[in-house]
TrEMBL record:
Keywords: Isomerase, tRNA processing. Its EC number is 5.4.99.12. Residues 110-208, 249-356 form the Pseudouridine synthase I TruA alpha/beta domain. It catalyses: uridine(38/39/40) in tRNA = pseudouridine(38/39/40) in tRNA. Residues 1-24, 41-71 are annotated as: Disordered. GO terms for biological process: tRNA pseudouridine synthesis. NCBIfam families: hisT_truA. It is an enzyme of class 5 (isomerase). This is tRNA pseudouridine synthase.
Length: 376
């Protein structure tokens, strides 16, 4: 069975249960006989630097964001298209300016999710958003309500990021983006870093305007876990996956499907979401020293969808007699109750988020473009 060590409490920040982590994965999943997951720690991200904001394949130029050329990036009828049009409208601009939100900024953030109860702000718990908002408040003098911090996605407890994207608002332009980034990092905990700060189009929204995301999940297939990677890779050395079956199972999930079987109940149960998503690729990359990286790229993901997909393909690659056909049956059944339990959070990284060039590669009027972007 997969095992991992208990994560150390960091910086005095403890979860609500006093630091005792309940085993989420040690129970048996009767329909498919999955019982090899064990308790997972909160974990640390790789020190590898994230890639820069990447321009989507569908957009090779950087036109004005309101000239209609973004239609090739957003499929007709996509909900993001409606959000894009609303934010670029005169009404959207007037709404921002009425609140004094005259300037929009974009952060690319990397963080170790081990010590935090997820990204989303919680008033009585340590979260990534909470730490970012405290630093931004000191930098700008504004409160969290005015800053309007939003992210490309709300990562769960114990999940990490190399390429999380965040937006916030300011009343006036920051005079020096390099100094601003350094100031933010001086105020942030050491497990959160701002690696890029830029000024995108004023209508930019980190969540609504994302056109694709890439997640990485790490496996440690060595018999004994490595002490230096145990916090950011799921150890499965006692029952390593068959790589051929793992790749075949992953290939089943590529394409446009109804992923109901791979989505947990949303945190907002009142919201009904379309379970159809498109997975562009699900690659299995064998690294050195028994590490395996699962790379999943898609146009969007449901709640815990990536971890549930990893649990399914790992079942197909480890259980005797199982294979890609089991994943096909899960996909066709559209029933979360008969799919295996999701993989633990500590192996998951939000690797990259992609946006239209028209929103990211934007130069404020009267500037030469050099001041609009800064990166580490």
């Amino acid at each position: 069975r997969c095992t991992s060590a208990r994560a150390e409490n960091r910086g005095g920040r403890r979860p609500p249960d006093g630091g005792k982590r309940k085993s989420v994965f040690g129970m048996s999943c009767a329909p498919l006989g999955l019982s090899w997951f064990a308790t997972s720690p909160r974990t640390a991200p790789s020190r590898r630097r994230g890639s820069a904001f990447r321009i989507p394949r569908a957009s090779t130029s950087a036109p004005d964001a309101d000239d209609g050329e973004l239609d090739s990036v957003y499929p007709e009828g996509d909900w993001r298209n409606a959000a894009l049009e609303a934010s670029l409208s005169d009404e959207g601009r007037m709404h921002r300016e009425a609140r004094g939100r005259n300037v929009t900024y974009m952060l690319k953030v990397t963080y170790d999710g081990e010590a935090y109860l997820g990204f989303q702000y919680q008033p009585r718990d340590a979260t990534v958003q909470g730490e970012i908002e405290k630093a931004l408040s000191k930098l700008t003098g504004e409160d969290r309500d005015f800053l309007g911090v939003g992210a490309s996605g709300r990562t769960d407890t114990g999940v990490h990021a190399r390429g999380q994207v965040v937006h916030f608002y300011a009343r006036r332009p920051l005079p020096d983006l390099t100094r601003a980034r350094k100031s933010l990092n001086g105020m942030l905990p050491k497990d959160i870093r701002v690696v890029e700060l830029r000024r995108p189009h004023p209508a930019f929204h980190a969540r609504f305007h994302a056109v694709r995301k890439t997640y990485h999940y790490y496996l440690d297939t060595r018999l004994e876990h490595d002490v230096f990677t145990r916090k950011h890779a799921m150890h499965c050395g006692w029952k390593p996956p068959d790589m051929e079956r793992l790749r075949a199972a992953a290939a089943v999930l590529v394409g446009t499907h109804d992923f109901s079987a791979f989505s947990n109940q949303s945190r907002d149960a009142s919201v009904v979401r379309d379970p159809t998503r498109t997975i562009y690729r699900f690659d299995v990359v064998e690294l050195e020293d028994g590490l395996v990286r699962l790379e999943v790229e898609g146009n969007g993901f449901l709640y815990r969808m990536v971890r549930n997909m990893v649990g399914a393909v790992m079942l197909a690659a480890t259980k005797k007699g199982a294979g890609a056909g089991d994943v096909e049956a899960m996909l066709a059944g559209k029933d979360r109750r008969v799919a295996p339990m999701g993989a633990p959070p500590h192996g998951l990284f939000l690797h990259e988020v992609v946006y239209p060039a028209a929103l990211v590669e934007w130069t404020p009027p009267g500037e030469d473009g050099e001041a609009s972007a800064e990166n580490e």
